[in-house]
Amino acid sequence: MKAKEKISRKEMLADMDVRTWPDGRRRVVSVKYVEQGGKLRFFPQCTVGGAGRMNNKQWRVRGFTPCDCKGQPEDHVHPVRIFNIVEYNGRVVYNRLTTDEHTV
After folding, report:
1. Domain range holding 45?
2. What's this model's pTM, rounded to 2 decimal places?
3. Is residue 102 part of a domain?
4. Is the Cα torsion angle 50, 52, 54, 59 positive or negative in sign?
5. What is the arithmetic mean of pLDDT over 14-32?
6. 101 belongs to a structural domain
7. What is the pLDDT of residues 49-95, one digit of tens each?
8. What is the tally of structural domains in the chain?
9. 10 Å Cβ neighbour count for 81?
10. What is the DSSP string of the chain?
């Protein structure tokens, strides 16, 4: 089995900051994360946004809204800590400071 590609947390956050395509459509991404209770959640299609009335960068939280194939929301916003994100767009998320395997 082929190993999955990797993405650093810094690159993932930079990619999340781009919320729309140049033509105005919202970007749809896939994300896999661990909830507070230890449950693994996977959203094959979701949009990225704020997690509520808080400073998302200070609290290191992002909000994910599951959506259909057209980008229409299907559920409420799920606030997720960035350190709990395991996969982003099919690529494994790693912390650049602690991984010796990947050199840039």
Report:
1. 6-94
2. 0.83
3. no
4. negative
5. 91
6. no
7. 887 787 887 888 999 999 998 888 998 999 999 999 999 999 999 98
8. 1
9. 15
10. -PPPPEEEHHHHHHHHH--B-TTSPBP-EEEEEE-TTS-EEEEEEEEEE--SSS-HHHHTEEEEEEB-TTS-B-S--EEEEGGGEEEETTEEEE-TTT-SS---
